[in-house]
Amino acid sequence: MPGLPGSGDQPSDDVIAAFGGRGPAAALGGGQGRTFVAGDVVLKPVADVAEATWAAEVLGSVEEDGFRVARPLRGTGGAWVVGGWTAFERVDGEHRTWGGPWPDVVEACGRFHAALASVARPPWLDRRRHHFAVADRMAWGEEAADLPSPVAEAVARLRALLRPVTAPDQVVHGDFAGNVLFADGLPPAVIDFSPYWRPAGYPTALTVVDAVLWYGQDVSLTLRAAAVPELDQLLVRGLLFRLAVDGLQVRDRAPGLRWDDAQVEWDLDSAEPLLRHLEQRRQAATS
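Above: the chain sequence. Below: its structure as tokens.
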């Protein structure tokens, strides 16, 4: 990711001041240690100026309907990116994941993506080469990569379930589940926009996958998303995506990666009930 500050870097006083922040920057949890808060301003490093500028324009104009967004902030002179950093207003709320209000997350996901339905495909998507972009293309049959065992075996089982998806693509948030904040009396707040170009129902399916893999939910959560067209196929792709990320991260063993063998083992164990559910659903549909 050219231009991305290291995990130990933080915004300078000049960058903080340019976005109207106050005081020294403090690291926020998550964001791989690269997200900081200074007063009411949240700052994130920029890997791609074109992508960050595009995302700021989209989030700055999206119409809130049953959800909130962390609005982007312009720096001095009106730029969305200053000194390799972008900034957002700090919104009220907290993560509620384990035992959290997952039906509300699913509903907010649908509302957020309805608001993005008319956004044009961003031109920079095809040049992204980070692990998440590669895993996304793998999940949708657009790219192949060797993965280590035992991830490869689980991915092979998922590939056997793949069938064509006919739902149209649009801009979606590719990491929704862990990026929703809740505050009493306020709609859910969507943060940390990760743009992809996939069917509108895909982030809802991926939210279910993430809730099962990481936040202690069981496969009954799929019932909350039952109205999503072609849900089973989107779940297959969402699970394939997450396991492909695991495999790529462990395969490459790059410095600073969060994924290790223990994380992969956790993900595979947590994925098994959902994978069996999808296999059983496919078998029932063809018998």
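The longest helix spans residues 261-286.
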